[in-house]
Amino acid sequence: MSVAPRLNFPEGMLAGQTAIITGAGQGIGAETAAVFAREGCKVVIADIDAAKAEKTAQAINADGGAAIAVAGDITVNEDIDKLVQKASEFGGGKIHIIVNNAGYAWDDPVEKIQDKQWETIITLHNTAPFKLIRAVAPYFMVKDGEPRNIVNISSTSGIYGNAGQASYALAKAGLVGLTKTLAQEWGPGYSVRANTVAFGAIKTRLTQAPAGGYVVRPDGTKHAVGFHGGYDEAEAKWASEIPLRRIGTPTDAARATLGVVSPLFGYVTGQTIMVSGGRGGM
C-alpha cells in the first residue's frame, strides 16, 4: 500500500485560483465567496446589485482576502463578456472556477404560470449559466496542469419536483443535464471537473416569510421574495422532516461547494451532490 502524504494546505485549498461566483452580492453566493477567499482564492463577485456586490467584495478584502465586484445582468451577453474580461484581468489571464449560483423562484401552479414567468426562470437558471460557461471556454479548454471546476447550483426541487414550482424544478433539473454533458466534453483532454450541488432547505431571504424583500428581474421590475410558512416562520415543522433535524445555513451551503471544487474531490465529476440534511423527495 502506498503511503499518501498528509493533507496540508498552508496557503489554502484554492491558493492561486480565480473564481467567478454569480449572485454573490448576498446570501449563499456571498458566503461562498468569503469561504473561497479564506482558502486563498481570488473571487469575482458577480451580481446585478452593484452596491451589494461592492459591499461583499470590500468585506472580503478587509478580512485579508482578494475580491472584486463586477455588477451586471447575467442574462445579457454584453454583461457576461464584461464579467469574463474583468475576471481574466483579475486572475492574471486565468480563470479556474465558475459557480453558477444566481437565481430565484417565481412560483405558481402549472395552470397559472404566465409566459413571462416561465421564460424568466428558464433564462436565468439555464440560458445564463450556459452562456457564461461558453464564454469561459478559452480559459477552461487549456492544458496548463492547473485545476478547473464548474459548479452549477441546483435544488432538490430539480431532483424530486415540487408542487407550485414547475418552471424552477425544470430549470434546476436542466442544470444537471448541462453539468453531466460538460463533464463528458471538457473532462477528456482538459481535466475540467463539472458537478452540480443541489440544495435542500437552506435559510436565505428567499426561503423566509415575506418581509418586504425583493429581487430585480432582468427587465428591471421587482419581484417579492419569501413565502408564508417559510423556514424562519415554521422552523420546527420543517426541521422535523429533515434527518439532521435542522435547517441548513448559507455556511453549510458554501462549505459544501468548497468541498466540491477542492482537491479533496479531485476524482469526482459529472455528479449531483445533495446538500439537504438527508431530506429527500416525496
Sheet/helix structural class:
alpha/beta
In helices, the fraction of residues equals 25-40%
Q: What distance separates the N and C termini?
A: 44 Å
Q: How do the strands line up in the largest sheet?
A: 3-2-1-4-5-6-9
Series of secondary-structure elements, N-terminal to C-terminal: EHEHEHEHHEHHEEEHHE
Query: Which ranges are low-confidence, i.e. pLDDT below 50, for 5 or more consecutive residues?
Result: none
Strand content: 15-25%
| CATH fold group | Rossmann fold
- How many structurally independent domains? 1
Q: Rg from C-alpha positions?
A: 18 Å
- Strand count, sense and closure of the main sheet? 7 strands, parallel
Q: Give the integer mean of the pLDDT values.
A: 87
Number of helical regions: 9
Q: What is the name of the CATH superfamily?
A: NAD(P)-binding Rossmann-like Domain
General shape: globular
At CATH level 2, the architecture is: 3-Layer(aba) Sandwich
CATH class: Alpha Beta
